[in-house]
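thought: user wants a sequence for this fold. calling inverse folding tool.
action: design(structure=
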């Protein structure tokens, strides 16, 4: 059987791994001498290599001054390509190593906090049961950061929600569910004893919140603004569930998280839900993948497991 092998353009075919490494070294050092040291070559060799790269591409990538070597607009475009290419090569090497040792390759998953207590661990457990030697990388931060990683090719898929309008054009989204948000505090917190809590009441205490770019933080900020209150100022920002829960328990702070994360903690009395109603305008979270790109066999298996769990 004959297979069509995609052609590599003459330009890309001349680029080598060391070329990509130099481009990245220059992108973060902005200095030819330090970039050369990073690559363990002499500065003249690095200068010659950059000239070779620019000759291959037919365009200048960096502007040289006495103080710095800075990328121009085309240089920034090439840097992004180099980052993506090296990430792909590194992931290929790791997956190949796993396969050579009898494994099933690897899978890089991103998931929002709401899925961490149940959906994500159960799906991973079933995937490991089916493919015990697969290497699975898991990232659990906010949707905005997960989609940035998905766009760069650092993740195979994400369980989260689009955070920008352009994401609807870049990704395919399969809705899974809606998060119910709970406000909570430590059992000894003054607000716990109140039968009704207002947003003004909560504003009198320090908060633990996610970064301002996250969908949940935008819900909180929007609700506070709609209540006619000033923005939050007494805050600690973190994407860590562990840090959030410990700051609430030990530092007298209040927080808002999905019910799935805090329900068990409130059931056993380690945390207490506050008596405040939270209108939940969060869009449904779902399985997000790069548009027009076929999932790997491992990613496809994981998605099938998530769907089975939803139906169950």
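)
observation: tool returned 312 residues.
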């Amino acid at each position: 059987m004959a297979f069509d092998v995609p052609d590599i353009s003459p330009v890309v075919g001349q680029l080598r791994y060391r070329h990509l490494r130099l481009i990245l070294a220059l992108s973060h050092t902005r200095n030819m001498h330090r970039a050369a040291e990073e690559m363990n070559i002499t500065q003249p060799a690095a200068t010659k290599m950059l000239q070779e790269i620019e000759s291959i591409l037919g365009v200048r990538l960096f502007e040289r001054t006495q103080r710095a070597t800075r990328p121009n607009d085309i240089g920034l475009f090439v840097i992004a390509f180099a980052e993506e290419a090296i990430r792909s090569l590194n992931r290929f090497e790791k997956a190949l190593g796993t396969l050579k040792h009898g494994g099933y390759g690897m899978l890089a998953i991103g998931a929002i906090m709401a899925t961490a207590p149940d959906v994500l661990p159960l799906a991973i457990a079933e995937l490991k049961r089916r493919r015990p030697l697969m290497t699975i990388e898991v990232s659990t931060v906010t949707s905005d950061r997960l989609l940035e990683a998905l766009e760069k090719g650092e993740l195979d898929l994400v369980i989260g929600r689009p955070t920008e309008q352009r994401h609807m054009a870049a990704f395919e989204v399969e809705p899974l569910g809606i998060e119910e948000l709970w406000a909570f505090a430590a059992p000894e917190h003054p607000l716990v004893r109140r039968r009704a809590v207002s947003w003004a009441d909560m504003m009198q205490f320090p908060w633990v919140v996610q970064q301002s770019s996250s969908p949940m933080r935008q819900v909180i900020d929007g609700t506070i603004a709609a209540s006619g209150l000033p923005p939050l100022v007494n805050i600690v920002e973190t994407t860590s569930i562990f840090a959030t829960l410990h700051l609430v328990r030990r530092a007298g702070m209040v927080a808002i998280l999905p019910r799935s994360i805090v329900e068990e903690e409130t059931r056993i009395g380690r945390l207490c839900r506050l008596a405040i109603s939270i209108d939940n305008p969060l869009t449904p979270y779902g399985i997000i993948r790069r548009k027009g790109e076929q999932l790997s066999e491992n990613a496809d298996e994981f998605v099938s497991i998530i769907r089975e769990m939803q139906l169950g």
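thought: summarizing for user.
answer: Here is the designed sequence. Residues 103-178+284-311 form a domain with the D-Maltodextrin-Binding Protein; domain 2 fold (CATH 3.40.190.10).
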